[in-house]
Amino acid sequence: MTTNTTADDLIQITQEGGVMTATFNRPEKKNALTHTMYEAMIDALEQAEAEPGVRVLCFRGAGGCFTSGNDLKDFLGNPPSDPKNSPVMRFLHALIDMKKPLAAAVQGPAIGIGATMLLHCDLVIAAPDAVFQMPFTKLALCPEAGSSYLLPRVVGTTRALSLLLSSQSLDAATAAQWGLVTEVASTDQFDAVVTERLNALAALPPEAVRTAKALVRDPERDAAHEAVNREAAQFLQRLMSAEAAEAMQAFLERRQPDFSRFE
Ligand code: COA
């Protein structure tokens, strides 16, 4: 196994055979994603796509949590200013354009972009304790990562609306039933199942795998890019709103938000 670490080890890149793994490695903050981490993930996507020996790139999180989504302190203090070129936007467009298969091994919380990025993954294996949440309305934000377009296609419009409007959580079994997750693997077998599925995918003829992925993903590709851009325009406005400031400040201060003064 080869190991490369990136800035501050926040994204740890490992490779074993044809399987490259990018691990969110900020467990003390539940792997909340910062600009630096998005930059490192863009590098990982580019590296995986360019390196002929890599057959699949898998995302996972350290410390029993996938990721708690975008760092809320970053949202408050260092919001993405350029909707076209911010690290998160470049990451999302790179995810959509990835030709090789993408996978995710999800344990614990997968929140915000931690849940929506799964819509761009071709294989999602969840542990029984995985919890999926898109708490955009709760944070006074709006759907992102193309979720307003892709989620209804994956789970159906009614379920997509229930997730995106109510900010409710989804457990692993329901996520699998709804099609957001490929498979739930038991806790004690989780690593073994992930390794087995990824190695099996990596052993297949790579051009055939890329062709199958392209045939499924290409018809939605332009629409997914457009959805990401459409959402970003709204998202940046929401991020600057007093409602969002109250929601995020409340989380960081460990108190309930108070939206009663807003019309
Ligand atoms: N951004 C910044 N910091 C975060 C974070 C995030 N998205 N998620 C967690 N953290 C921080 C907490 O502030 C806390 O920091 P502290 O120890 O300095 O106080 C630390 O990570 C541990 O989080 P905590 O909430 O105590 O852990 P938990 O196990 O009780 O709950 C979560 C875990 C993931 C359910 C909870 O942290 C959470 O809901 N996070 C916010 C998710 C979110 O709204 N993401 C944005 C989506 S757009």
Topology:
Blueprint: E1 2-5, E2 11-16, E3 19-24, H1 35-50, E4 56-61, H2 72-77, H3 87-97, E5 102-106, E6 109-111, H4 113-116, E7 123-126, E8 131-133, H5 147-155, H6 157-166, E9 169-171, H7 172-178, E10 183-184, H8 190-203, H9 206-239, H10 242-252
Parallel strand pairs: 3-4, 4-5, 5-7, 6-8, 7-10
Antiparallel strand pairs: 1-2, 2-3, 8-9
Helix pairs in contact: 1-3, 3-9, 5-6, 5-9
Question: Which key terms come to mind for this protein?
Answer:
about 260 residues, alpha/beta, 2-enoyl-CoA Hydratase, Chain A, domain 1, 7-stranded mixed β-sheet, 3-stranded mixed β-sheet, about 45% helix, about 15% strand, globular, binds coenzyme A
Low-confidence stretches: none
Report the span from N to C terminus. 56 Å
The count of DSSP E runs of length 2 or more, i.e. the number of strands, is 10
User: Would you give the CATH topology?
Assistant: 2-enoyl-CoA Hydratase, Chain A, domain 1
Strand neighbour order, sheet with most strands? 1-2-3-4-5-7-10
Q: How much of the sequence is in beta strands? A: 15-25%
Q: Provide the helix percentage.
A: 40-55%
Structural classification:
alpha/beta
Output the number of helix runs: 10
The CATH superfamily appears as 2-enoyl-CoA Hydratase, Chain A, domain 1
**Name of the CATH class:** Alpha Beta
Largest sheet: 7 strands, mixed
Could you tell me the mean pLDDT? Answer: 95
List ligands, each type once: coenzyme A
